[in-house]
Amino acid sequence: MNTMHSLALVGARNADPSARLVRQDFEEATRAASGGLPGAACRGADPELFFCSSEDAAERQFAERRAKQICAGCPVRDACLAGALERRERFGIWAGLTTQERRRLMSAESKQRAQAKAAGR
Ligand code: SF4
């Protein structure tokens, strides 16, 4: 992340107290996802990457790409995704998925379950 991005992100972080609360939840949840092991790849990363509050589309895209890169190599990704879906996380990048991508995944899983039920499986 370049200095301009860092400064802009810090400014955005300080401007939104509710986002700070969500980030705190994120840190606790990712700690839980790692099962106490030092596994979560986002530990120590800038939470602004996962909860970008910038109004600048380019900054949001940059943060999303970077968060997804971090998640791609995370050893607790499956547990993280399961937890995020169970809690129906409304904000942020979890297990490399945006809110919209998680919604699509839940919708697809729900359709599959309904089809399996209708087919008597
Ligand atoms: S999958 Fe991503 S958000 Fe989840 S614990 Fe790993 S790095 Fe953090």
From TrEMBL:
Coiled coil residues, start to end: none
UniProt GO molecular function: 4 iron, 4 sulfur cluster binding; dinitrosyl-iron complex binding; DNA binding; metal ion binding; protein-disulfide reductase [NAD(P)H] activity
4Fe-4S Wbl-type domain mapped to chain residues: 41-104
Binding site for [4Fe-4S] cluster: C42, C71, C74, C80
Requisite cofactors: [4Fe-4S] cluster
Superkingdom of source: Bacteria
Subcellular location: Cytoplasm
4Fe-4S in keyword set: yes
Cofactor note: Binds 1 [4Fe-4S] cluster per subunit. Following nitrosylation of the [4Fe-4S] cluster binds 1 [4Fe-8(NO)] cluster per subunit.
CC per GO annotation: cytoplasm
PTM comment: Upon Fe-S cluster removal intramolecular disulfide bonds are formed. The Fe-S cluster can be nitrosylated by nitric oxide (NO).
Keywords, in A-Z order: 4Fe-4S, Cytoplasm, Disulfide bond, DNA-binding, Iron, Iron-sulfur, Metal-binding, Transcription, Transcription regulation
An annotated GO BP: cell redox homeostasis
Keyword match Ribosomal protein: no
PANTHER family, sorted: TRANSCRIPTIONAL REGULATOR WHID-RELATED
Recorded family membership: Belongs to the WhiB family.
Free-text function comment from the UniProt entry: Acts as a transcriptional regulator. Probably redox-responsive. The apo- but not holo-form probably binds DNA.
HAMAP family reported in the protein's UniProt record: WhiB
This protein's name: Transcriptional regulator WhiB
Native source organism of the sequence: Kitasatospora kifunensis (Streptomyces kifunensis)
